[in-house]
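hey so i finally got around to running the thing on that chain from the lab meeting. sorry it took forever, my laptop kept dying and i had to restart like 3 times. anyway pasting the input first so we r on the same page abt which one it is
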Amino acid sequence: MFHGACWICLQVRGLEDSDIQKKIDHEIRMRDGACKLLAACSQREQALEAAKSLLTCNARIMAYMSELQKMKESQIMQKMARRYVSYAGSVEDRLPCKAKVAISDLRIPLMWKDTEYFKNKGDLHRCAVFCLLQIGTEINDTDMVIVDRTLTDICFDNTVVFSEAGPDFELKVELYSCCTEEEFSGGNTPKKLASKLSSSLGRSSGKKVRAVLDTGGSSPVSNGGGNPLLLPVTTVPGPKYHLLAQTTLTLANVQDSFRTHDLMISGNEESSFWLPLYGSMCCRLAAQPLCMTQQMVQITGEQQNWMKIYAVLRGTNLFCYHKKEDVEAKVEPAFTIAINKDTRIRATEKGPQSISISNQYGGEEVTHTLMAESRDDTHRWMEAFWQQFYDMSQWKQCCDEIMKIETPSPRKPITMLSKQGSLYHEMASSLPASSCEGLLLQDNAVSAEIRALLSSYYNDR
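ok and heres what got predicted. didnt touch it at all, straight out
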């Protein structure tokens, strides 16, 4: 027999599959835009930003595909299991609440040699670096930072917030580096730029661009009739980022303060992307479980002196008001009962529906007895308390008090746009006025495609 609960579970899985697939499709489109942009870049900073976006998109695609595979396997297992066992809820099925997990004030100290830092000798080795941060399928990147011997620390000012973390979360922090002095295949001449655009925009649009820009009569660069965006990432020209260091943070690392964590370093001094890391990183890792911030239950009842109350369970407190309207008006509660891991709660099995809540204060036990209006209300109260205690046991130190998480500030606009406008403007600035006018008049579709490409890359992130 096919049980209803299992059928609902499979329906939910189907919706999740569809959602994951949409995310994969979105990231593929973003990756395609990054590939086109990377192929068209003529400035080093542009190429570094495009390569960074490409790496991030590929990481998200891999994470989503891995999650989709797990979901498919889970569906198969459920279909096989339903033949032998029936679904039934139990205490063991209880799940902990989710939490916001935020990492901020990320600092990675550097350890330059005395001759490099103090005496300013040797080549000025410069690298572009950024961090990739991942919990499950949620992946974020920091801003790119240019690092050389004038810096003693790599500093990332981003506050990155993950909104759906469980207590078993693993926050992967990966530091990527790219030597800015490596040979860059970009060019700033109209012919080179036109060749890149013709190969990245396709046959028809590429020919139109070269018809305007290419005065040398050379044959147009063709993509061979295929889609260059489906080629392996290794075939995309431009700078390459390499994994320089990584670490994994868990619930045990969450503290409402600035802490130091060990890094596992990749590569060596012979690598072009090498930086002299000290071997550690500093950051603030905070978590806000939903049980600490949202109202878990709201129920009408009476205290032992028959005073009518309206109680709200939120975080480590049961707030008791005279009436429901006081909650909406944000009036101070009539009294507050502490709810923590040491609180003892009992419900009467016979007679009036009452719940006793006991806490220790300075060696003295204080008990509040609340009267529920019905057996169903008593059950709802007790279920909310048990869930709260379970969440506290899973999130541990995160439930001692609410940790502050600042709202992430908007990402800084990429400076290359403010300096250079757009790829179209860069092309136009290199051409005579008549050629620019011809490009505008003869191929509005091409300029619109470039603008759409840049818009998807810079704005839809």
